[in-house]
Every structure is written in structure tokens, then in C-alpha cells.
Design goal:
Length: about 70
């Protein structure tokens, strides 16, 4: 029973850690390493549970907003 409490305490610490909220960027220099770290953290948290997780990538900005921002330059 003690091990279960220790595991729960470790899980709570991890979920409060900045690592838990890290996201990767597509095409980044160390994208594969980032994804490996992301999944090692998040898959370990869902053992025995149904897994549903948002994308490991940062939200993508709308291309349309980029077009309008660039259009103002020209």
C-alpha cells in the first residue's frame, strides 16, 4: 500500500512540473527527442486507463492570419 501512495505522490509532482505541459514544434531541430520525452511522460501516466491526449505539438497558428500579417508588409 505504501508503494501506491508513493507512486500517487510522484504522479502529482510530475503533473505540477513544467515538463508536463511541454509541447513540441514540427520541424524543430530535436523534434524526435522532444516527442520521445513527451510520450515517455504521458504514456507512463495512463497505464491501465483509457488514453486520450491532446497533440504533443504546440497549437498551429492560422495560415490565414499569417497571410494577412504578411500582406500588410507589402
Amino acid at each position: 500500500m505504501l508503494a501506491n501512495k508513493e507512486c500517487q505522490a510522484a504522479l502529482e509532482v510530475l503533473q505540477e512540473s513544467p515538463l508536463y505541459d511541454c509541447r513540441c514544434k514540427r520541424g524543430m531541430k530535436k523534434e524526435l527527442q522532444c516527442l520521445q520525452i513527451y510520450w515517455s511522460i504521458h504514456l507512463g501516466l495512463t497505464e491501465g486507463e483509457e488514453f486520450y491526449e491532446a497533440s504533443p505539438y504546440e497549437p498551429v497558428t492560422s495560415r490565414l492570419s499569417d497571410i494577412f500579417r504578411l500582406a500588410s508588409i507589402f
